[in-house]
Amino acid sequence: MSRIAVIGGGIAGCTAAAELAAAGQQILLVEKEDSLGGNIKNYGCKADSLCTRCNLCLVDTVFNEVRENQAVEVTYNTTVVDCLQEKDKFTLITSDLEGEKEVDDISEVVLATGHTRWSELETGTPEIFQDRRIIWASDFEDMLEQRQDQLSGQSLEFDLGFAPESAVFLQCNGSRSLQEKAQYCSRVCCGYNYRIARVLRENFPEMELSMFFIDMQEAGFLVNLSRRDLQEREIAYYNCKPLRLERGEDSLTMHYEDQKSGKMATIETDLLVLSEGIHPGPEHERWARIFNLQQTEDGFLRPIWSPEESKVYLAGTVTSPGDIATTIAKSKTMAYRLLETRQARAEV
Questions:
Q1: Contact 287, 111 (CB under 8 A)
Q2: Rounded to whole angstroms, how far apart are CA atoms 150 and 185?
Q3: Nearest CA to 78 among 96, 59, 100?
Q4: Which end of the chain is more exposed for a tag (fewer CB within 10 A), N or C?
Q5: Helix axis angle, 11-22 relative to 324-347, nearest 10°?
Q6: 117 vs 279: CA distance, rounded Å
Q7: What is the pTM of this model?
Q8: How far apart are CA 23 and CA 28, in angstroms?
Q9: What letter does residue 130 receive in the DSSP assignment?
Q10: Which SS3 state, helix, strand or coil, does residue 92 take?
Q11: What is the dihedral of CA 213, 216, 219, 222, to 10 degrees?
Q12: Which of 339, 335, 328 is nearest to 40 (CA)?
């Protein structure tokens, strides 16, 4: 029996694989790392006293469905290096720890290899220098995941090496900038960092919290991110991006233009949390060549021919930025589209 190949074991690939397998299809899931999860496998829940709908609770269910379904064969530490198509079937050339091999009798291909975070790129924002007081949002995610049940002043000091009394969240870092090759909005940074700020407010009520936005974007369901909500939680709001950052002996100083007065102003902070824009994966150019796809002006992937014709389907953030809930929903829609096409072919 022919199989559907799903390339990528993140939330998009696993959602597609789970839906297709539940419908009776045989699946080959190709994952380049030694475990499922992709970009979000080390993310932590961002509930405070209430659920903030970060949607991480949906993730484990999807991964468990893949692991427990015998119709899904997962190959770890494996990459796809080429693809041959003859008539209605694909042959994948894969590479694993034992070398290259051919995997034939593939009926359709689902490409779901995700995205790259701004912190993973070789380039960086020139005005941001290395300092223990400057961390990426993913660093904070790791802390939340590791210390979910014991977040306190002591544990925060253990992770950072110091106990900050203030924190500033810088949005649109790696997005909305020609310099960073990402003129688009990554859509997820505002909501995710806002949730982290709420966790800090819940656990460290005396901490001074501030956020810099170009504008606010909600991410996921029922985030309730608004200027009023920030004010109610005593989180300062700055409607701009800082112009300069200076390192002092005891703190960081951010220079920005006050939007009300039109004059330069400063704010000092013990901790700066940088948002991470969603960028196209470095392998997108190779995928475009192997599977006859196009790249958008921002570097994401899109089909040249419809997937019904090419039998190559795209799922998740290979096509555009998106949060967890959006990625799951779109990946399910893609799976249903593939199944409907298969059914229509069978009826001809």
A1: yes
A2: 34
A3: 96
A4: C
A5: 40
A6: 6
A7: 0.89
A8: 15
A9: -
A10: strand
A11: 130
A12: 328
Residue by residue, pLDDT tens for the chain (348 residues) are: 789 999 999 999 999 999 999 999 999 999 999 999 988 877 777 777 777 777 888 888 999 999 999 999 999 999 999 999 988 899 999 999 999 999 999 999 999 999 988 777 655 454 567 788 998 888 888 877 766 555 555 566 667 888 899 999 998 877 766 665 678 888 888 888 888 888 888 888 899 999 998 877 765 555 677 778 888 889 998 988 888 889 988 899 999 998 888 889 999 999 999 888 888 988 999 999 999 999 999 999 999 999 999 999 999 999 999 888 889 999 999 999 999 999 888 876
Q: How far apart are CA 86 and CA 93, in angstroms?
A: 14
* Closest to 189 measured CA to CA, from 224, 219, 167: 219
Q: Give yes or no for a contact between 67 and 27, defined as CB atoms under 8 angstroms apart.
A: no
Listed in sequence order, the residues at least 6 apart from 184 whose beta carbon sits closer than 8 Å to its beta carbon are 175, 176, 298, 321
Q: Which domains does the chain have, with CATH numbers?
A: 3-114+281-347 (3.50.50.60), 119-277 (3.50.50.60)
Are the C-beta atoms of residues 312 and 319 closer than 8 Å to each other?
no
DSSP codes of every residue in 198-217:
HHHHHH-TTSEEEEE-SS--
* DSSP string covering 276-319: --EEE-TTHHHHHHHTTEEE-TTS-EEESS-HHHH-EEE-GGGS
How far apart CA 43 and CA 130 sit, in angstroms, is 23
CA dist 330 → 15, 189, 197, 318, 320 (Å)? 9, 19, 28, 12, 11
